[in-house]
Amino acid sequence: MSSSHDYQQTLNLPKTDFSMKAGLAQKEPVMLTEWTKKEIYKKIRQKSNGRKPFILHDGPPYANGNIHIGHALNKILKDIIVRYKTMKGFDSLYVPGWDCHGLPIEHQLLKDLKTTKAEVECVAFRKKAHDYAMKYVGIQRDEFKRLGIFGEWDNPYLTLAPEYEYWILKSLAELNKKGFIYRRLKPVNWCFSCETALAEAEVEYENHTSPTVYVKFPVNNASVLDLPKGKKVSLLVWTTTPWTLLANVAVAANEKFQYVLVEVGKEILILEKTLSVPVLEKGGVTKFKILKELTGKDLTQLVYTHPFGKKKNCPVVAVDYVTNEDGTGLVHTAPGHGQDDYQTGLKYKLDVLMPVNGKGVFTADGEPFVGEHVFKANPLIVEDLKKRGLLFVHQDIAHSYPHCWRCKKPIIFRATEQWFMSIDHQGLRKKLKDAIHTQVKWIPAAGEERISAMVATRPDWCLSRQRYWGVPIPAVICRGCNDQQKLLTPVIEHLADLVRTQGSDVWFEKDVRELLPYGFCCPDCGGSDFQKANDILDVWFDSGVSHQAVFRTLINKDLPADLYLEGSDQHRGWFQSSLIPSVAIDGKPPYRQVLTHGFVVDGEGRKMSKSLGNVVKPQEIIQNFGADILRLWVASSSYNDDVRISKEIVDRLVDGYRKIRNTVRYLLGNLDGFNPDAHSVAYAKLPPLDRWALNALAKMMDAVNTGYEQYDFVGVYKAIHAFCNEELSSIYLDILKDRLYTSAAHGPERRSAQTVLYHILDVIVRVLAPIMCFTSDEIYALMTKGSTHGGVPTVHLLDWPVVDPQWRSLPVEEDFAGLMQLRPLVLKALEEKRREGLIGSSLEAKVIFQTASERDEAYLRTHSDILHTVFIVSQVEIERVAEVSAPVNEVYSKTAIFVQKAQGEKCSRCWNYKTEVGTIADHPALCASCTKIIKQMDS
User: Fold this and answer.
1) pTM here?
2) CA atoms of 143 and 67, how far apart (whole Å)
3) Which residue of 9, 463, 512, 913 has the lowest C-beta tally within 10 Å?
């Protein structure tokens, strides 16, 4: 071989079919098909059989539309955990679920049908709702599978499945048997648009403008106050809901407050002392006289006339929830329209007036506003009060007000007969709080106090809904008990058995006599004349008892689940609706750990909305970049807070992905022809630089393991990315090129390097698998494999990598620390000479260390044989001097770095400059080292 061209053919250049261009959008669907064809998921389940379980229980999304970016975040987080736990040796069965009942589906279906609840027949509509839900179960299932999510897709849990509905009713029966279920006229969150009661979790708070009024309630027995005669005396009451005045039955005062009787012209007003001046100013009153002061308790001797004459001699009652932060210190009380008011009504045996129907319209009891919608009646009420001289002042205020989560319209509080679950029966509330604090780990920790505070103040759970699409509450109306509605455990259990085989439509299809146990009679009156009630169960109860339905049938494991993972809004939703029945039925929470994530927002932190045009669809990201980029976005995002996504963020992720991919491509290319069983070099025979790389790999694995265990996937991504970008690409692989390319293909130097590259690749492909599930399997398909892989067809059937203890070497790390500190300083010096035009490639350089330090000289001479390799130069010299004028830094305060043109000529094969180039007869263009290799190849 005499030409430089021929010499280039002798180099060990990288060779791999792993393309630089990812092409994920095209490759991933093919891989999904292959996974299905090879039954990869089935093999994972077979391998996991008999292992210690780790169960992440899925919170069911609603089956009423395509998945959105929030769904993608949630499901990918779950999949990362399930894949990691599976590789770690757990039986991590993941059963996905869907919420298939309730208002979200009913509302959307009515919208699609362009009709209303009143215009449809129940059974026919339920069948349409079933088909509608199943349609979107299919659509969402395909979209989740496209994300690379592994799970029981052929056997998910569906809240509309007869077996699941059976467990809903069995759970209700058990709670009823234990005395938790009762029926009562109570105020509930009521959506007049959807015409149904709402649970606390179905209420959102949005800005709303309300008329606030200060109203005079005429006192009937002012004589007990010993006041001047001839003066009209009124309690001054403040409210932001004038329409509820029609249902007023009392005024509440705080018995600890001081109240003043203020003379204003010809009338006397009563209000809280500290609020008197600002309130009077609002009414334009500047001249007034305080006649006397009374306590709130003193005021309880007063009675007044209802502002619309509905009742006479209404009482003033003492409560502790009245504040003096705003208003007048006197609160209008309508037990039919508020929870506090209702409790006050129970305490003082007050009437519950309800002049408003399910559409939010005043009934005959709402005279003189019959037929008016309550919100439209507000200005009429204000005007009426003004005409009759009872309005002191009126203002409009913007404030946070409850809205329906589905139709987004403001709601009202309305007393109706509903079925409730008691939160205080058998000390349940205390048990819930104890479970929250002692039996569950909350991630992040702030979730513990958040849900605890919610449970401490939450009202009883309103279980009934006035809709069509859901599991029926099998209450019966007993004719012999004055048409009293009753929920009887034998009836619930009997229906549960019917539903298990026929589905919940049976309640709406059959006559009541066919739905009762044989020979059933009312336990109170002994009668058998019954009528069916028509309420359905709150959809939150459906999903809330999923731990009963899924764990008893599909998972066949004991509670609690190891992990629940949902958005932070579920502290008031699914986490509570699951906790309450679980503690009530089984005496323990359904979960050991609860992990929450934030909401997805745009790049500026704004909520996504169609009107802003900032909605990012996961389908579009997959189509343009591939699902692995979406998965990488999830892993690289700090999900405890709101998670941002935008085109710019995705572009940065693509760049991060590319860096990891290119690093892996380099590893694969340089492992061509390497057989780990035949060619691996024992650790004891590895040179120090290779040991340094393995130590860095071990440190990366420590960070990765910690990140996965703590669900800190940002930490995992950063550790992998930094290792690929810094320790590998910037240092080890950069230094290694000469050895890999120019050493003898089968020589110990190259085999040693390949051994380390193989270990690195074998670790990286596994630790990437839970996050970049497609790319990792693409890597695995192309990488060289040893007998330890056992012919495993996919990375997802491999175990989690375990670091060889030998790799962790503090002496090696400490020994190389100095070289790693010097390397950037040398590279900087080389770059300066490159800009000056002295050198081009770093191999054209000779580095001279001048040192006046005994320590530095000893350290450099100890490593003199590898200095040129570490700094990627042709020559390095070490000179001892008395002193240096330009030390490199404070650490090397007696050492300077100089760069000169390398001595000798450039070797045509390795490109190093050597003095012997041109002196070797057979190969004058080569250095001695390359000549030796060429001769070995020729022989």
Assistant:
1) 0.87
2) 7
3) 9
